Every structure is written in structure tokens, then in C-alpha cells.
Amino acid sequence: MIRGLTLMVSIASLASFSSLAGTRAFAQGTAAAPADGVYDLIVGTYTGPKSEGIYVYRFDTKSGDATQVSSIKADNPSYVVATRDGRHVYSVNEQPGDNGPATQRGGISAFAFDAKSGQLTFLNRVSSDGNDPCYLSISPDGKYLTTANYSVAANPGGSFAVFPLQADGQVGASVLTVHHEGGGPVKGRQDNAHVHSTVFSPDGKYLFAQDLGTDKLYSYRYTPDGSRGLFGPTEKRYTDVKAGSGPRHLVFGADGKYAYLTSELSATVTVFRYDDGKLTQLQAVPMTRPGFNGQVAAAAIHLSPDGRFLYASNRGDANEIVIYAVDPANGHIREAGRQSTLGKAPREFSIDPTGQWLIVGNQNSDTAYVFRRDQQSGLLDANPKRIDLGSPVDFKWVLPS
Asked: What is the E.C. number (predicted)?
């Protein structure tokens, strides 16, 4: 027991991982676009009458057209991630959610991906060691997968878990589970800890776990050689944010100097300076217009490939993407515009690798919209292309073979 933390460690399978980083590595904004401008787009959903799992589209960055090429059944794969070489895809299986008892653990599923044909093949599934897994990250060295478990039934409060990635692409059983303790002032939302995202720092040395329930960004040192334990709390342990704000998602700038956070309950974006595992708050900006009186629920946050603009989604009654210009001199942001998502509950969104398009899923409207993006102003064209899909949530890009 570490004060405020409980660590549950299994050493099984520690020797079974290998790096999955391939020679055809792709990182948004850094790889040359394919000659035909076509990428594979992998979409995670909540399953139900209009969705069966994960969908694969061919996305033409020259036209903004998306054509479905395949799908595979999966249980609430609401968040997905692909390896850097594009050969494997991992998804959460968000349970219990609305589809099972609280005693039922969530899952993590592994798939092989043939980028040429756009086909996914199921490999295996393991327990997420918690309930409602809602986020995934692959360590920069490709050895481990981390997940944020929003809740844990047997021990109310969220956790994050760590899984070794094996040479054949399968995901191993968790080797580490970390529970946070505490809560916040918002009754019903902050009665316990609720980990909502796990994000590695650009230098690959630290993992940040954003806890909506405790209003803290926990920081852990990553030492894959085991010399200091796989993950251990840093000396500072965590960064506080405003009580009742509910931190959700964190993203780092490409130069590693600044980080940006959405806080779900307060609908704010916070700017931090980053330095060797430490976050220092610089700015906090509201996402809503002055005088807005409706419900808010800030969600995803992403930077444009060139780093000049920051985008954040807000659900509730706002249902929009807010656009911020980034000052490269100090990381500060200022509002540049906002765009309705033309639906309800825009949970996740993504900007294509060329920076020309932004696609957002309206979870409660069974639609996704592809907005043309002005790369000079950062603004989104108000006449997007529509994709009909049941409860779309997450979007990831892969280079075709």
C-alpha cells in the first residue's frame, strides 16, 4: 500500500512480451501521405441494434469520402488503438455498462489487422481487471498496453491496469493494477476514484493517469527494465486540478513542452508546462460560451498535425467542437471558433494525418460527420459529409500496406 494508491502486481507473462513497433511506423503528422491519399480508418462503437463492433473504412483524404470495407463483432469496443506498424488493433470491451451486472469485469481484445484487405481477425481477450474500461495506450517501446478502468465493482473506484503485448499480437493478462483512493465534491460523479485516461509522456519515461473522481493527474515513472519496478509513483505523485472539475483526457504537444487537459464536469481546457514528469498549470479556459446555461460534458481533446490548433469536444447540451489557436511561444490557447457536431453526444473525434479532415462521432445520434478543415484558420466547414453508423465513438488511422 502506498498512501492513496493500492498496487496489485502479477509477474506472470512478464517475459512473454516483445516490441511491436515495426519498420512501417506511422505517427500522425510525421509520416508521408500515401500517393493515393487513402488511409484505413478503424472505428470503435457501442454495440446494439445498429452496431456489431469494430468497423473499417477506406478514407480518401483527397475527397473526404469514407467507404466501409469490413466489420468484426466485438463487445462495446468503445475505444481502440493500433500498433505503430498497423499490424494489430486492441479494443476495450466496456462492461458492465448497460449490458451486464457490476460483478462482470470489462475486457481487452486483440485483433490482427491486414491493412491491404482491411480485415480484422480476433486473437484473444483478457479481463481488464476492472469495470467500464474506457481508454487504451501503448507504451512508446511497444511492450505494454495500459487501460483506464472507470470503475471497479468489488472495490468502488477506478483503476488502471498494465498488459504485456506478445510477439504474436495477443495481449497477456495484466501484470499490474493500480487503484486510486479518494473522491471529489460532485455527488454521484466523484464519490470514488474514476480513472478516465492513461497517457504516456512524449519522452516515454512517464505515464499520467487522469482521475475524474479525485481531481488529480497521477504520474508514474515507467522503467521497463524493472530496475525501479515497472511503474512507480513519482516523487510528486500527482498534480491537482480545480475541485469538482473532473479531469478526463490529456494530450501532449509534439515538442513535449506543453500538455492540454479536458475536464469533463467543468467543461474546461487546462494548459500545462511539461518538464521531466512534472506538470505545471499555465492556463484554464472555459469551453462554453458566456452565459451558457445548459448541461456540459467535455470529452476528447486533440491537436492538429502541425500543432497550431487544439480541438476539444463538449457533449451535454452544447454538442460541439471548440477550436483553439495555440501560441507556440508559451503554449497558451485562445478560442478561434466552434462548430456544432450536428448530433448528440460527440464523445471522440480525430483529425486525419494530412490535417485536411476532422471526423467526429455522435454517439446518441448514430452518425459521424467528416468536416473539411481549413489548415490556416483551423475552422471547420459547416457542410460535412455524413456517415450513418450505430453509436460511433472512437477513430484511429492506419496506413494501408
From this structure: 3.1.1.-
Given a cut of 80, whether residue 19 has pLDDT beyond it is no
What is the grid cell recorded at 147? 487501460
The answer on pLDDT for 79 being more than 60 is: yes
pTM metric for this prediction: 0.93
Q: Which three cell numbers stand for residue 93?
A: 470491451
Contact status, residue 154 vs residue 119, Cβ threshold 8 Å: no
Picking from 107, 91, 84, the residue whose alpha carbon sits closest to that of residue 56 is 91
Q: Is 266 helix (H, G, I), strand (E, B) or coil?
A: coil
**123, 145 Cβ separation under 8 angstroms:** no
Q: What is the pLDDT of residues 206-228, one digit of tens each?
A: 999 999 999 999 999 999 987 88
Domains of the chain: which residue ranges?
1-32+74-240
DSSP assignment letter at 157: S
Closest CA to 302 of 226, 397, 164: 397
- What pLDDT does 20 receive? 38
CB 94 within 8 A of CB 78: yes
Give 383's Cβ-side CA count (13 Å radius). 0
Q: Does CATH place domain 1-32+74-240 in 2.130.10.10? A: yes
Give the span between the Cα atoms of 352 and 39, in whole angstroms.
9
pLDDT computed for residue 32 by the predictor? 74
